[in-house]
């Protein structure tokens, strides 16, 4: 099993995915323990003084004006966790909860939060035990961070509330901690606040989405190439010199991927064979431009994620010179914006893929393919309703592309009068990413069937990469041309084939690594 060591310098996207999805083991680095100890000494020294310090000896948010005496400070920290664990709605996915727990641990280990080393170790122990707090869909405004989701996680550390065990059963957190020999934490000054006050939920979902979208953009290049081939389009528009004159790096990468898939095809370039065409339709010809713009958006989002992964998001923060200072770094705007940007890009990629699918099914625009790719059109409906499903998914993606970060609802008696809605942006992006995988799967299903129908003519030989895709997808249980059948299982198998990266894995032995 992989082990991820958490130190003072942040973490990587790869480590987040390893912990969230693959249950990598977490250990505290020696530098983290040193930094945690030093920061805690600063907090303890301030706690002993009469001067009010936010989060140490005051209330929270709009109640920060009240000074809290020593006898009530432990209760203050317990109370903030209990009162802020106010989420509602469906449970959030296990991988998301593990990502936000790990990212909060990352910030704690920076030495800027003032949390004791034993609290950080308990966080690592809970992750390693496979205990996942029950976190609910609604409750975060993305400022001050993801308060309610993180509060439900902190509640588990205290041995309160409910959590899911490694067997998938939801039980009282106290029982699960006891079974794994984990002692619940008793929070001291600032620790309750430090466990809640970050952008870890939205950041975790951004990192997971970036990993998924990396696969899906490569997959979309493959399906676009298959559709171009099935439509007897030209690959001349993919020439590197054409994309060099408009030097967007994502566009060049998408064109290169498509060109690699189409290498050796006997289907491309037949514009003049039946109905003369000077140019292919935009959904075919402009595929690299649309996918490329999305790729460049991914690159920007990845830069934001990397900066956030290196950050220590808390309020107040403990500085090396001994100051504990209030700040606004918990505001989720940088993450919220790119989450919304990605939803826009994903919607457009899904939209252009659906247009290619529709073209494959329309006998008036498919250049000789049977209506709806049906075996016996009229008796058979072929893929008519598969395109309906794809269109419904695209329509929802357009709704999901409406920015969440443009909204703000004041809270905490107007103390927190501008919020990011970054958690909401992340939740809708997760839905959009799932929809995009389904949309690409429908294009894959249609394009592979269309290529196989073309290949019935011995003069029309698919590219080696196309043949590799068809062979792999058929082995995965996605059936080829033939009479009508129950389509949903085929579409589900195609979705899994795309989502799990098997489409990309099928072509890369032929094309080399896709960009």
Binned strand content: 5-15%
CATH topology of the largest domain: Fumarase C, Chain A, domain 2
Distance between the termini: 29 Å
Strand order in the largest sheet:
4-6-7
Q: Mind telling me the C-alpha Rg?
A: 26 Å
Keywords: Cytoplasm, Histidine metabolism, Lyase
GO molecular function: histidine ammonia-lyase activity; phenylalanine ammonia-lyase activity
GO cellular component, one term: cytoplasm
Organism: Streptomyces longispororuber
Describe the structure.
Its main location: cytoplasm. Keywords: Cytoplasm, Histidine metabolism, Lyase. It comes from Streptomyces longispororuber. With 515 residues, the chain is mainly alpha-helical. It folds into 2 domains: 3-198, Fumarase C, Chain B, domain 1, CATH 1.10.275.10; 205-311 and 349-511, Fumarase C, Chain A, domain 2 (Up-down Bundle). Helices cover 54% and strands 5% of the residues. It contains 19 helices and 9 strands. It has helices at residues 13-22, 30-47, 73-84, 94-108, 117-128, 147-157, 173-179, 191-194, 200-230, 240-244, 249-262, 282-285, 287-309, 333-361, 384-400, 422-454, 464-475, 487-499, 502-511, and strands spanning 3-6, 25-28, 88-91, 132-133, 136-138, 162-164, 170-172, 317-318, 324-325. Strands 4-6-7 form a 3-stranded antiparallel sheet. Strand 8 (317-318) and strand 9 form a beta hairpin. Helix 3 (73-84) crosses helix 6. It is elongated. The mean pLDDT is 95.
């Amino acid at each position: 099993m992989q082990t991820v060591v958490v130190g003072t310098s942040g973490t990587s996207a790869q480590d987040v995915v390893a912990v969230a999805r693959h249950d990598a083991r977490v250990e505290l680095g020696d530098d983290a323990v040193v930094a945690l100890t030093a920061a805690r000494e600063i907090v303890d020294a301030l706690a002993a003084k009469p001067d009010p310090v936010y989060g140490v000896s005051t209330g929270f948010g709009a109640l920060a004006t009240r000074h809290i005496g020593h006898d009530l400070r432990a209760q203050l920290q317990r109370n903030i966790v209990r009162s802020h664990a106010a989420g509602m709605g469906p449970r959030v996915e296990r991988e998301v909860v593990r990502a936000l727990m790990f990212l909060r641990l990352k910030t704690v280990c920076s030495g800027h939060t003032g949390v004791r080393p034993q609290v950080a170790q308990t966080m690592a122990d809970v992750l390693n035990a496979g205990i996942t707090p029950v976190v609910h869909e609604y409750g975060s405004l993305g400022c001050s961070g993801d308060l309610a989701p993180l509060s439900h996680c902190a509640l588990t550390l205290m041995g309160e509330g409910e959590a899911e065990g490694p067997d998938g059963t939801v039980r009282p957190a106290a029982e699960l901690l006891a079974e794994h020999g984990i002692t619940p934490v008793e929070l001291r000054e600032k620790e309750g606040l430090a466990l809640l006050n970050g952008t870890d939920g939205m950041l975790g979902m951004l990192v997971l989405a970036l990993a998924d979208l990396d696969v899906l953009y490569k997959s979309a290049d493959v399906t676009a190439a298959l559709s171009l081939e099935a439509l007897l389009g030209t690959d001349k528009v993919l020439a590197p010199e054409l994309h060099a004159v408009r030097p967007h790096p994502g566009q060049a990468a998408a064109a290169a991927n498509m060109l690699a898939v189409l290498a050796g095809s006997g289907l491309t370039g037949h514009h003049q064979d039946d109905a003369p065409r000077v140019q292919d339709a935009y959904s075919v010809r402009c595929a690299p431009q649309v996918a490329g713009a999305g790729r460049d958006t991914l690159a920007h989002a990845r830069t934001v994620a990397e900066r956030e992964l290196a950050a220590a998001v808390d309020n107040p923060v403990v500085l090396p010179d001994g100051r504990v200072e209030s700040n606004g770094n918990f505001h989720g705007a940088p993450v919220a914006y790119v989450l919304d940007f990605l939803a826009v890009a994903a919607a457009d990629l899904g939209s252009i893929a659906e247009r290619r699918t529709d073209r494959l099914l329309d006998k008036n625009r498919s250049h000789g393919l049977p209506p709806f790719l049906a075996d016996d059109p009229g008796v058979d409906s072929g893929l008519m309703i598969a395109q309906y499903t794809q269109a419904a998914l695209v329509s929802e993606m357009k709704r999901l592309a409406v920015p969440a970060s443009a909204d703000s609802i004041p809270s905490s008696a107007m103390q927190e009068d501008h919020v990011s809605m970054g958690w909401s942006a992340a939740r809708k992006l997760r839905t959009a990413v799932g929809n995009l995988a389904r949309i690409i799967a429908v294009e894959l299903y249609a394009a592979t069937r269309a290529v196989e129908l073309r290949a019935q003519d011995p003069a029309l030989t698919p590219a080696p990469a196309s043949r590799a895709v068809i062979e792999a997808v058929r082995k995965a249980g996605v059936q080829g041309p033939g009479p009508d059948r129950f389509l949903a299982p085929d579409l589900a198998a195609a979705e899994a084939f795309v989502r799990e990266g098997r489409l990309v894995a099928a072509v890369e032995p032929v094309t080399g690594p896709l960009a």
